[in-house]
Amino acid sequence: MTTAPELSVVVPVMNEVENAVPLLNEICAALRGKVSFEVIFVDDASKDDTVGSLKAAQRESPELRVLKHAKNSGQSRAVRSGVLAARGRLIATLDGDGQNDPADIPSLLDAWRAAEAGSPPLGLVAGQRRKRQDNFMKRMASRVGNGVRQWLLQDNTRDTGCGLKVFSREAFLRLPYFDHIHRFMPALMLREGFRIAHVDVNHRPREHGVSKYGTLDRLMVSLSDLRGVRWLRRRSRQPERVDEV
């Protein structure tokens, strides 16, 4: 590409050799002819041939860039690595397991364009899954976790675990970074004075591979993170405006 695209699609992956290339093809099919874009897959030190399969796919998908972590660093760091490398002013993220539907990305872009004008500035359009295609325990844990989070953070978002989001690269880089930040982006965007919007999106069963998270370990980490994000919200102070004089 000789000019910067409008949109950079960032996809964190780890050990997703069966899912990565089919997901790439779906992303390209959903976006070609609709928006200028690049796709950045960030491999979080996979032990399988995820990187090799993606490199081979670059011949058919010139929009693709592949980054690789030398050491496993987690999903949030993979997203951040992709955002830092991105050339688009807008970022779309989705999970690398194929459960988010790339066909929903244009709907999030439409919502962004419809809501972009206004004050305060728009920072995030968050996807919210209509029907979770996960097992009963995951759905129940997510329902409890989302309920507690909304009660404590007042972020007006029923499903922060959905990986499908569109946001401003500039806004994201203003947020304080920590592991698992991707689950608290609505609250942190509000903390920085941005508006947020929501779009209901599709959710699909995982067809290949295994989840990288267990129900109990995710819940325990989330409780600790909640305390930290609540502290960040309480310690925020926003000027009414900033003028150059």
Mean pLDDT across the residues is: 88
Per CATH, the superfamily is Spore Coat Polysaccharide Biosynthesis Protein SpsA, Chain A
Can you count the helices? Answer: 8
Within the CATH hierarchy, at the fold level, what is the topology? Spore Coat Polysaccharide Biosynthesis Protein SpsA, Chain A
Radius of gyration: 18 Å
What would you call the structural class?
alpha/beta
In the CATH scheme, the class would be: Alpha Beta
Shape: globular
Under the CATH scheme, which architecture would be assigned?
A: Alpha-Beta Complex
Unreliable runs: none
Helix content: 25-40%
TL;DR?
Strand 1 (7-13), helix 1 and strand 2 (37-43) form a beta-alpha-beta unit. The chain has a single domain, classed as Spore Coat Polysaccharide Biosynthesis Protein SpsA, Chain A (Alpha-Beta Complex). Helix 5 (136-153) runs parallel beside helix 8 (215-234).
